[in-house]
Design a protein that fits this description.
Radius of gyration: 19 Å
Oligomer: single chain
Strand content: 25-35%
Number of domains: 1
Shape: elongated
Largest sheet: 4 strands, mixed
Structural class: alpha+beta
Strand order of the largest sheet: 1-2-5-6
Helix content: 25-40%
């Protein structure tokens, strides 16, 4: 019984310490009503937008976990144009994804240390014109897969010097 308790405590401390060592993310969604395209197909527009922001927040957090734990990634999103576009078909509205409607995203970013000293900052204007070609299986069933692949590529290129081996 004591062995089980010891293993449980050790596992809990290991999980806790790895989450403490992960970099933090601060996301800011500036003027989302002005974004180019964050429209739902048949879903409730407000709910769709909230779910999209939540999903992208989680994705940025996952990526930031590769940065040193004493750092914070601050992202201020100023525009999103999701892959595809929405069309009205009578009473319904559907999202159609074609090559002519690539995903785009604009944001500024900063990486700061625990003492708030600036490590890196910049502006990102992401656009993936070849998003329909060679899509990896990683996000095959993800509604924001095209956007996540685009963000992954940016993150890897931008932070290659800061990435830890996790």
């Amino acid at each position: 019984m004591n062995t089980i308790k010891a293993i449980t405590i050790l596992l809990s401390l290991t999980l806790l310490s790895s989450s403490v060592l992960a970099a933090k993310v601060e996301m800011k969604w500036t003027d989302p009503d002005e974004y180019t395209d964050i429209h739902a197909g048949e879903n409730n527009r407000k709910h769709f937008r909230e779910q999209t922001f939540k999903n992208l927040d989680k994705h940025f957090s996952k990526l930031a976990s590769q940065l040193p734990g004493d750092q914070t990634l601050k992202v201020e999103v100023t525009n999103i144009d999701l892959a595809g576009t929405t069309f009205h078909g009578g009473m319904t509205r559907i999202r159609v994804v074609k090559e002519m409607y690539p995903p785009r995203m604009e944001f500024s970013y900063q990486v700061v240390n625990a003492d708030n000293s600036l490590i890196l900052k910049g502006e990102a204007k992401l656009k993936n014109m070849s998003f329909m070609m060679g899509r990896t299986l990683r996000y095959r069933n993800d509604s924001l897969g095209h956007e996540k692949e685009m963000i992954d590529k940016w993150f890897t290129q931008t932070f290659k010097e800061q990435l830890t081996d996790k």
